[in-house]
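User: quick one, fold this
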Amino acid sequence: MLTTPDPNPHWNGDWLSEALPVPSPNVGPRPPGAVIDLIVLHSISLPPGEYGGPEVEQLFTNCLDWSSHPYFEQIRGLQVSSHFFVRRDGALLQFAGTDDRAWHAGVSRWRGRDQCNDDSIGIELEGLEGQFFEPAQYQTLGWLCQRLAERHPIAHIAGHEHIAPGRKRDPGPGFDWSLLQQQLGWHHTCFPACVSPTFIADR
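Assistant:
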């Protein structure tokens, strides 16, 4: 029997084949007519400044032991998720299908629209706001953004600090926006105004 080849082998529905699937319960449907055209970048580490452990994964799946570290008392009961998580070594995890609404942005506004959870894809980078990120993370992030643009009409990339100014500060000044722009080759107007328009592309 003849079969039709998958037009994009990177995707299994709205789950990325190369990412480790870790489904989160903290997701929901997007509003009717939502256009998924924004990528929001975050940074996270649990406990803050500690890397490589299972705590971020546990937080996004509501399995974190709140009593295991004093810091966790500050976030006890928090129910959040992102679509993707990029570890320091570049490993990629996916917590929500990209067609679904993950809970990562909170009260937010960008490109004239409120409630960025409705029409964005959230990517968490393992790191501490204001600190630097690893080359392996930029490599994975650039690749991931390209894959997302294959499936969704991505037109904007912003940080949590840009869509919720004064409330959030991640990923912070340690994130190299110009490097990401050069990796992707997308027009500088896709990025926050802080990105220098030195690399111009047709996107």
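User: anything notable?
Assistant: The helical segments are 55-60, 135-151, 160-163, 177-184.
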